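User: I'm curious whether this sequence folds into something compact or stays loose and floppy. Could you predict its structure so I can see for myself?
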Amino acid sequence: MQTLLDQAPDAMAVLDGEGRLILAGAALALASGRPACELAGLQVGELGLFGEEAQRVTQAAQRAALDRQARNLDLASGLCVRFVPDVASPATAPQVWMLMQDHRGFHALEAELRAREREFRTLAVGAGPNMLSFGRFQNAEGIAAGVA
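Assistant: Here's the prediction. I'll summarize afterward.
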């Protein structure tokens, strides 16, 4: 199981029912700035990755274990954390898989794309009816003022 966690491109871990780390992958260790062997036993909220939302993250892990239902958290920091209960673990000792993805880069790219689109629309509206674009069927479509 450790090999699976270490080979994953995203930060992954296995937690107990209280939200304490049992196993941690290499990407999670890298994100936390500590060796994976030092992470065992820590509450997920103690990783130093979640700031003011640490308690919310720990509670979501505990609820996933208790309810045996997956939980998704999109944090204000841009991190996305998913807790998935291990249905093969006994109800008396539940385990939860944690997957963490950093979407901060995606959010920055999305903002940049929106800014470029606004610039293009400003240019297209200012160019008037003489500007042409090619649609997906390769037919010329006029872009005129007021057409979005």
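Summary: The longest strand covers residues 95-102. The chain has four helices and seven strands.
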